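Problem: given the chain below (342 residues), write out its structure.
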Amino acid sequence: MNDSSDKDWPRNIERHWFVIARSDAVQSKPARIELFGRRWAVARGADGAVLAIEDRCPHRHAPLSQGTLTAEGLRCPYHGWTFARSGSCVRIPGWPAGDPSPDIRIPALAIAERDGLVWAAAQPVTDATLPRAIVTLDPARRRFVWQTVWGAPILEALENFLDALHTHLIHPGLVRRDSQRVPATATLTRTDDGFTVDYHGGPKQSGILYRLFESPRISERAIFSGPGVAQIEYRYANGSAVWITLCFTPQSMNATHVFTMLHVAGRWAPAWAVRLFVWPFLRRVAYQDKRILELQTETVRAFPPQRPLVTRLDLTRPYLEAWWGRGTSTDLPQQRTARLML
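Solution.
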């Protein structure tokens, strides 16, 4: 069910770039994706470029994702109307030769591909660039791309990934242990396209992931590259670094596509080894986050309307709310620091 409408989303948010698919998943056979509660048909042409147009033929409303990709564009399965990458109707079977054809156009998405992901933005896009946290990643360092859907609003999904304080209870023993908290400070600093959060006081973590796969750290940073990219960056004393990046895309008001990437620099971590040894643990962490977020979403539905209680420990929440139109503050400080037990 479509549980959103245009008025539910922050103004102009759809003009930003969001991931709609893994590059290897988009083939010549059309497929349907959902973005902001709307259906889109996507396919890859013979020239390698991706087409993404509204999944509805305006003639008799047949789904274009059930059609066929031709040299001209995407052909409707009902009467054969064909639509180009721009959304223009370029062929109407049965139309008399020589007669001027009607100017028919459906919405289309602007498309960009980078590092194994397909990005889309509503047209027209003005001065749009991919999020900084994405363009600074070296594709040669990527070890995997994974995709799933969490039954939760994008705001809650973003906060979950950027929130270190839930890891003790939601990922007990895997990421951190509640019985082994240590004093730390977290400093949020606004950037041109979001914010960073730098953690000090914890060169190591108490969970099994750190003991098995990491070494002493010199920095731990959380990065929000608005409006839909969240990243954790670990840098180590031996000169190596790891980036865990999640790209969040709204499927609807209460469902979010999640695209996960892992990049590694300066340490032995071939893709096959990451899949064999590291991925089972990371997948477990992702499942635990999915479960608590879906429980949270169900509870919010049962007790409407509720505003979350925000304390000084919840550094990221007001800034994320400002991006996603859920907050009340318009004058957030450039920097904010909190002491916490991490």
